[in-house]
TrEMBL record:
SUPFAM superfamilies per the UniProt record, alphabetical: Pyruvate-ferredoxin oxidoreductase, PFOR, domain III, Thiamin diphosphate-binding fold (THDP-binding), TK C-terminal domain-like
Species this chain originates from: Actinocatenispora thailandica
Name of the molecule in the record: Oxidoreductase
One example of a Gene Ontology biological process annotation: response to oxidative stress
Source taxon at top rank: Bacteria
Length: 620
């Protein structure tokens, strides 16, 4: 009997289970197949910090949420239309997020008395009416997988581990996804263990066939490809995009790329990805600690390379002294801060954007640095290009802020043409630049470009360009050591003026205000872009005018920032911190911006922002 096929414009699926159940891999493979089909998509991986959290417990639950659609979307979705719960812990941890009438697929094999007791279920929720408001599919995923693999010479444990592939096959059938790409992936992943290749492929196909033959699933769904701008696309995570952006920037600048890094969640994938690309002149150095990593990167910049270091908040705290040294030496340095929930160790795998104050002020003395932020996973590519452009043009350290949500999340990315990438021009000093009264010439390492105020960048060993370098205050022009009070005042102001001058070289802040009648402006930065944009769309669809603007450059701010903010009656700033940008804007412009803050280790949902913003719009 042919199954009914129903057309949908969007779906949100959440896979949830133990951290050892392969939920991240399952979600990643479903994402890859959806991207191949041409859907627009956005993902939200959510997993514990422990390498192997206690099995069957609430702290050990790992989930992967995917939102895919036939139109342009901005977020991973507010709530899942389908929850795949591999055990009672996954059900209990995620059920509060699931709307009534949503579909829930549960692995009934794991709903034993012992597993139920682990998470505080006195009665089996599959039997006591807890799930009456949902469309529940009870599927013995584990035993079906083991039965499908009984002909293979593998252990029962290995067979049970393949249950995620059975679930993936079932969901792929349910939403008309191809599994060919996943089969190819599995054959490559387990190439040295052919028995596991065949077992996982068999489990994948068994899940597909189960959906095709069982009477429990009477409907299949189709989500057509999205109408995206023409081009070649690939699915990309924020960390991968950031790594690619750094490579592209180094090629455009004609500089070898050096990354000094110490592994830290959620930044380690930047190091992992860059280490694969030696053919582009990339050199990666896994240092013994965060201080050594940034010191090596600064040394690379001194030697004429593009010095970069990647880390998260705790690492930025340790790198502060060396960033200050880069300020004093006036050398380019890019610091990639993939923010996570803090302070201290905090919640390493959860997202937050609470490092803004540290990026702006987290060094001793008057130590100005440029700060920019990426707004989406694919935008990490372009943010990296901009960070490098500013660093090498103005000879300043640039802190590039991403976060765990962007780093691990993914979306389709249209591959740009090389000609579309910005020019990054680097001019090394090659000759003397100062003439003495007697007509002789010499090299002054702190004689500045009149427009950018950048000092010359002289590669060590260039004949005639020998000069001092270090952290002690320099004399204006000559670069000699100086303790003169007036000179120190001059140099402090020059270093600040150099960063301030970047504002002349960046775009104005632009408000998206289609009707021109909005009285409320929502101003965001970083990863709040998607949730704000989705909420603003909904509010406009409800008939209320509202404007949106988003900051990439946080220090300096665009030159027209104050004027734009003052052109609206109310300015609302949603942030995943306790109002750090809002505080900055109040202090700098004396504008009473309204903060909307959240620090739960999760990104905003469009729904919660819609409710808060619409209330403000109605009462303005």
């Amino acid at each position: 009997m042919a199954k009914q096929v129903r057309q949908l414009d969007r779906v949100v699926i959440r896979f949830a289970g133990d951290s050892g159940d392969g939920m991240q891999l399952t979600g990643d493979r479903f994402t890859a197949e959806s991207a191949q089909l041409g859907n627009d998509l956005s993902t939200l991986p959510n997993f514990p910090a422990e390498i192997r959290a206690p099995a069957g417990t609430l702290p050990g639950v790992s989930s992967f949420q995917l939102h895919f659609a036939d139109y342009d979307i901005l977020t991973p979705g507010d709530a899942p239309n389908v929850l795949v719960a591999m055990n009672p812990a996954a059900l209990k941890a995620n059920l509060p997020d699931v709307p009534r009438a949503a579909e829930i697929i549960v692995n009934t094999d794991e709903f034993t008395k012992r597993n139920l007791a682990k998470v505080g279920y006195d009665v089996n929720p599959l039997e006591d009416g807890t799930l009456d408001a949902y469309a529940v599919h009870e599927v013995p995923l584990t035993s079906l997988t083991v039965k499908a693999l009984e002909a293979f010479d593998i252990s029962k444990k290995d067979a049970e581990r393949s249950k995620n592939m059975f679930a993936l096959g079932l969901l792929s059938w349910m939403y008309n996804r191809s599994v060919e790409g996943t089969e190819t992936f599995l054959r490559k992943k387990f190439a040295d263990r052919p028995e596991l290749v065949e077992a996982n492929v068999t489990a994948l196909k068994a899940g597909w066939n189960y959906g095709e033959t069982t009477e429990d699933f009477a409907v299949r769904y189709e989500v057509k490809p999205a109408k995206l701008p023409a081009g070649t696309y690939r699915n990309i995570t924020g960390n991968t995009a950031l790594a690619y952006g750094l490579i592209a920037a180094s090629v455009r600048a004609g500089l070898p790329l050096f990354l000094g890094a110490y592994p830290i969640t959620p930044a380690s994938d930047v190091l992992h990805e860059l280490s694969k690309h030696k053919k582009f002149g990339v050199l990666t150095f896994q240092a013994e600690d965060e201080i050594a990593a940034v010191a090596a990167a600064l040394g690379a910049s001194y030697g004429g390379a593009l010095g970069v270091t990647s880390t998260s908040g705790p690492g930025v705290a340790l790198k502060g002294e060396t960033i200050g040294l880069a300020v004093m030496q006036e050398l380019p340095l890019v610091i990639c801060d993939i923010q996570r929930a803090g302070p201290s160790t905090g919640m390493p795998t959860k997202t937050e954007q609470a490092d803004l104050n540290m990026a702006l002020y987290g060094r001793h003395g008057e130590s100005p640095a440029a700060v920019i932020a990426a707004s989406s996973p694919s935008d990490c590519f372009y943010a990296a290009l901009e960070a490098v452009r500013i660093a090498v043009t103005y000879r300043v350290p640039v802190l590039l802020l991403s976060d765990g949500y962007l780093a691990n999340g993914s979306e389709p990315w249209r591959l740009p043409k090389v000609a579309e990438l910005p020019e990054i021009t680097v001019d090394f000093a090659t000759a003397h630049n100062h003439e003495n009264p007697d007509g002789s010439t010499e090299f002054w390492p702190y004689l500045r470009d009149p427009e950018t105020l950048a000092r010359p960048w002289a590669i060590p060993g260039t004949p005639g360009l020998e000069h001092r370098i270090g952290g002690i205050e320099k004399a204006d022009g000559t670069g000699n050591i100086s303790y003169d009070p007036a000179n120190h005042d001059t140099m402090v102001r020059l270093r600040q003026a150099k960063v301030d001058a970047i504002a002349r070289d960046i775009p104005d802040l632009v408000a998206d205000d289609p009707s021109g009648e909005a009285r409320v402006l929502v101003l965001g930065w970083g990863s709040t872009y998607g949730p704000i944009g989705a909420a603003v769309r909904r509010i406009r669809d409800n008939g209320h005018p509202i404007a949106q603007a988003h900051l990439r450059h946080l220090n300096p701010l665009p030159a027209n920032t104050e004027a734009l903010l003052r052109s609206y009656d109310k300015v609302v700033v949603p942030e995943m911190n306790l109002g750090q940008l809002a505080q900055l804007l109040r202090a700098k412009f004396l504008i009473d911006v309204i903060g909307y803050d959240k620090v739960r280790g999760l990104p905003f949902t469009a729904g919660e922002l819609e409710s808060a913003l619409e209330e403000i719009v109605k009462n303005v």
